[in-house]
Amino acid sequence: MKRIIFGIVSLLSAVTILSSCHKLDLQPTSELLADQYPTTAAQYTSASGPIYIALRGDYALSYFFTQSASTDESVLPTFGSNWLDGYKYQELHRHTWTKDNAWINSTWTYLSNIIGTANQTIYVLQSAPAGTAKTQGMAELKTMRALAYFMMMDNYGSVPLDTLYGSIQTKANASRSQVFNYIESELKTSIPYLKTTVGTSTYGLPTKYLAYSILAKMYLNAAVYTGTGRYDDCIAACDQIISSGLYSIEPMSSYLQMFYPTNGPSAKEFIFAIPFDATTTSGNMYYARYDLNRNQGIRYLYAGSNPGSYTDPIMNQNTGNGLVNSMPSGPRMTTNEYYANFDDPNDVRNKQWLTGAQYWQDGKPLMVSTTNKGYDQFYTGSNAAGSYVYALNLTPLGSKVRSGTNSDFDLGNDEIAWNTGYRNIKFYPDYTNTINRNQNNDVPLFRYSDIILMKAEAILRGGAPTSGATALSLVNQIKSNRTTSAALTSISLDGIYSERCKEFAWEAWHRNDMIRFGKYENSWGLGKTNADTYRRLFPIPTVAFQTNSKLVQNPGY
């Protein structure tokens, strides 16, 4: 079973309708009473559907950009006037954002919506019949709300603890430590009632191991959040997951497949993932979108001749008369600083990148047909419209744009510009969807490899080793499943940081990592030199102050 689709039952639909209408003159033909429904675990899952829909809503867009494009992991420069978009990408890249940045605004709205949806669902279901199903269902909802609050705390610091649906009183910010304590308490209270089953029946749903994963991540970052390290607590939370024996590290042969459009409950490492379905939802539209070239459809040639039918070498899927049969998107690329972590030629994780010369399956170079002016906008010869065919070669981003472009963030509007930058294709393109750019790739929030590396880092930061494991043995447990190179003989914090860069590229954890390792103020990419430490928190956006005048802005903004 590849996909899990959460339904919205009549109970919650009725609440939404009644909250927006003053009077209904319709005579009901059936009756669903709060003290009669839901009563089973399956019914609670169905009734809880809106919170999972809310989580899926903007994770692959706004949340991804705030976590990745504010770091050295990814950047979306401008190409002439393409993707200028109110400078929202440039501001993230250079740490010059304000409280009006569109991505920061929409991320706040996204996370607030998850919390509000959870509050509403908990309120509606509190009158349901008592029993094991209710206790478990409420624990799941509170775990999801805790996850959203963790993301809010991580990004915005002190935020309102508003957990009562229907209250007309706005709340001021709680301190970051207070939010931390609230999340910790909610998770610890929920854990005894959460499921321990792992597989299709719980895929995309909160289990006991999601709760422990959130706690582990919180404890690892506790020195950032509260000023006090909690490394032994991080190790203890990791051990709860490790000792379950329910997860394992994917071998080299299946590492990349974890992120394919065909991924799902069979992934050995997925502790919690967001299911996406291109046919029934908005789909994983931005996160997994193929970022090789621009929205001009197929324009590739076999050395100047039609390639005919092409079979993709990784997915082994026929793609028709070109590389992709859907519409590519804006070319997000990585910086040289981030790509420098991929320094092991025998590592399977190198294959998540498109770099250098590109070839067809039979080894022939992938050719592109354009014009002299189309290839180089600064062409000064006498035949600007003349045909120009070249072998596609992706070049590193560098630190400076080409002379003559419109701004110092503009790569240009020609083939040279469009072929600049190494592209990540970890969440591999979905060729089964020919209608739009939606993707079927599910996105993991927590993987087992993260648990292993968190424990290793916590030990290096002063936590006590357990179960005979050392930081080195834990890191080598990952390495042995990712590369044929020899095992490491020593490990440092910088080594763990580099390993996390390799392992979790494009998985929305890099901002969190850079802050914890003290690297968020570094310089990188296209003119990122700002070292303001207050930017470890995003500003509370304008949209929040419009509805809550009690909020206090984060320092520096």
From TrEMBL:
Compartments where located: Cell outer membrane
Recorded GO CC terms: cell outer membrane
Family annotation (InterPro entries): SusD-like_N (IPR033985), SusD_RagB_dom (IPR012944), TPR-like_helical_dom_sf (IPR011990)
Domain SusD-like N-terminal intervals: 83-220
Keywords: Cell outer membrane, Membrane, Signal
Keyword flag Signal: yes
Record has Membrane as a keyword: yes
A Pfam match: SusD-like_3
Every RagB/SusD domain range: 268-557
Annotated family: Belongs to the SusD family.
Designated name of the protein: RagB/SusD family nutrient uptake outer membrane protein
